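Subject: sequence -> structure tokens, single chain

Hey, anyone have a minute? Need the predicted structure for the following. Not urgent.
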Amino acid sequence: MAIEIRLPAIDADFEAGAIASWHKAVGDSIEKGEVIVDVETDKAVVEVEASDSGILGSIVVPAGTEDVAVNTVIGVLLEAGETIGDIDGAEPALKQDTPLAAVEDVSQAISNGAAAIDVTASVITATATDGHLFASPLARRIAEQHEIDLATIKGRGPNGRILKADVEQALQDGKSPQAAAAAAEAPRGTFTTIPNSKVRKVIARRLTEAKQQIPHFYLTVDCELDALLGSRQQINERHSTNGSNIKVSVNDFIVKAAALALLDVPAANASWAEDAIRRYDDIDVAVAVATANGLITPVVRQADRKSLDDISIEVKNLASRANNGQLQPDEYKGGGFTISNLGMYGIKEFSAIINPPQSCILAIGAGEKRPIVRDESLAIATMMSCTLSVDHRSVDGAVGAEFLQAFKQYIEAPSLLLHG
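Reply:
Had a minute. Here:
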């Protein structure tokens, strides 16, 4: 019989997501374990694999649909020998569990192969009860959020039904009070409107909350890099001579140094909760990676126990898969400390926003030649400015200073990092 493809609970906190794309079309064969659909969560695009083999008989929830609840039927899989008509057997479950908001346009679901699903007039009427205006649930929600009168919008769907695209066009045309106010304040000239992805919206919300609710304070230290750069060159030359493709970066040294500094100063490896401060037993260091969809922080687990080579391989792998949208939730969730490195862009110094529920984030600037005083004489050294943003609720100033003191020691004496 036909098998329902339901949106799985990708992780413990996942309640709803967006269907980013389907890897298969109606009629395509699917093998168990094969990736069939990409789901956009709060932080990344996650690949969902088929739990059974068969033929994709219907796509119930098309790509681009947002706020699809866990356990919603998003497609139908046919077993060997079945036809599209056999989807009738799955009809009651589809009606009961698939929210109307999950399908932007009923006709689109039908054209995608769901012709055997009984879409009755009562279902369509249920989406058009406000003054006899036909509008999809998603279109209604967007219109309500932006205070748009649906009566002012001409629908381009079947029988004049108002779709999500119609409301978005109205927003661009300035039909909402907010859009009108923004247009009045905006400078004259042309511009391109780039819709915010689910990931971008979550990043914006979390960073706003972090900056508003967390009492940040900042500590900066300058580290001399010349010894580290020398060690890095020796390590990479040795790898090259041995035929290894491992290439250790300055950032790999930084991850290792931060991990060992947290081992020395465990009070910095903590997070704030109303009833207690949580100090983590494991040292899991998150590394900020800029992707096309926004910032994501994959985590190097137990970084204090890993060698520079291991960290180098893992960070490059995590960053590559982050850029390709292939990270799994357990690879970017958690972590007790974050490193954000903008040194490769030539940024001398900056202050980063804390990534809650963590208490600290270390902002790394560029290494540059600077004049310094050494042994009462003027000298030139490669210096790197590092700024620690700290949550004052859970980490005191003295603790932050002790962490930076330990971090600086490891950076300036890189031989201490070469074991483990």
